[in-house]
Amino acid sequence: MQKLNSLLMANPYWQQCKSWYEVRPPRDRKILQLLFATVLTGLIYILVWEPVTQWSQAQKSAYLYQQEMNTWLHGNLSKARDLQKNQQASSAHQELSSIAASVAQQAGITLGRVQPDRKGLSVWVEDAAYQKLLKWLVLLQTKHSVAIQQVRIDQLKEQGRVKSYIHLGG
């Protein structure tokens, strides 16, 4: 406080304002004090109170939004889990489909139709050599751990050629 007082005393403008204030009549001094208090209050309101109030309102609305979002998320959590399970099952079917197709290509088999369903993957082979079909099924089961759930093999007119339906599972 002494430093502030010594700085003010060294300032010629402060000295001039102080001497001007002291020569004013007491009524003018009261008005000047009231004016100074009003200006100071206005500055505090504009520079401190209003920004803090706006920040507080913004924080309150953000909090309310987060509460609503939390309530909505808790209400839809089971739906989200079901959707996630469905997406995982769908990606598993797509993965099973790509494995079946790539191993069939390695074995030299052309797949006629591939159809994913809830339980796995249905594959139709219209015309293939029996030995290549067996090789494909063995590769799927041993190297890729694909379960062969159902197989139907029909012999074609040509010797060693077959038509088949195979249902694969994960």
Task: Explain how this protein is built.
By secondary structure, the protein is an alpha+beta fold. Helices cover 68% and strands 19% of the residues. The protein contains five helices and four strands; from the N terminus they run ααααββαββ. The protein has helices at residues 2-10, 12-22, 26-75, 77-107, 130-143, and strands at 113-117, 120-129, 147-155, 161-169. The protein has a four-stranded antiparallel β-sheet. β3 (147-155) and β4 (161-169) form a beta hairpin. α4 packs across α5. The longest helix has 50 residues, at 26-75. The chain is rod-shaped. The two termini are 82 Å apart. The mean pLDDT is 87.
Numbering strands along the chain, what is their spatial order in the largest sheet?
1-2-4-3
Q: Count the E strands.
A: 4
**Which structural class fits the helix and strand makeup?**
alpha+beta
Helix content: 55-70%
Tell me the overall shape.
rod-shaped
What is the N-to-C succession of helices and strands? HHHHEEHEE
Overall average pLDDT: 87
Low-confidence stretches: none
Compute the number of helices. 5
Distance between the termini: 82 Å
Radius of gyration: 43 Å
Biggest pleated sheet: 4 strands, antiparallel
Report the β-strand fraction as a percent range: 15-25%
